[in-house]
Design a protein that fits this description.
about 35% strand, 5-stranded antiparallel sheet, Jelly Rolls, 4-stranded antiparallel sheet, elongated, 9 strands, about 190 residues, alpha+beta
Length: about 190
């Protein structure tokens, strides 16, 4: 009696193994119906509910080949303004700055970028007094003539605004070319 029971158990285990090994058709390949429950007191859903394309969970933005002459980071009137970065729909950003020295550097320093929220009262405080409210910074320290290329650390910051202005500085004595990479994620 023990042998037939063992045979049945082994047959079921083999059948389960075969079923698990058969490639399953992806559920995403087929059209699926979705049921939306309307809970008016909690979440009121009205009208058409649609999603156009896949939901993006990350995006990379590259600001390339920005020439930054020598300018002190505290001299906010002379900072080099770069393109804006649209961060709408994302919760976090990782900033990476990379660049190359143009010529012989005699005075080492740091090269960096500030991201300043594109909001009227914040921009007004910056334009009138040089005050950087809610700014994010990335910098490469110790830029010198020893190496023609440099790179920053990669700080991660929480996004609080839908758009940021970029400003660049260079405390060395020669112009540099920089690339700012902003990786946006949720």
């Amino acid at each position: 009696m023990k042998r037939p029971a063992l045979a049945v158990v082994l047959a079921i285990a083999c059948l389960a193994l075969v079923i698990l090994l058969i490639p399953a058709r992806a559920v995403a390949d087929a059209v699926q119906s979705v049921i939306i429950e309307n809970w008016p007191k909690i979440w009121n859903v009205s009208g058409a509910v649609t999603i156009d394309g896949p939901v993006k969970t990350s995006k990379g933005v590259a600001l390339r080949e920005i020439v930054v002459p020598p300018v002190n980071p505290k001299d906010t009137l002379r900072l080099i303004q770069g393109p804006d970065v649209d961060t709408d729909g994302f919760a976090y950003m990782v900033l990476s700055l990379q660049g190359q020295i143009k010529g012989e550097v005699y005075r080492s320093g740091s090269v960096g970028a500030f991201l300043l929220p594109e909001e009227e009262p914040i921009v007004k405080a910056f334009d009138e007094r040089g005050i950087m409210l809610f700014s994010q910074e990335v910098s490469a320290a110790g830029v010198s003539g020893a190496q023609p290329y440099f790179a920053s650390n990669q700080p991660r910051a929480q996004i609080g605004f839908s758009r940021y202005r970029t400003y660049f500085y260079n405390s060395t004595d020669k112009a540099v070319t920089v690339n700012l990479f902003v990786y946006l994620s949720n």
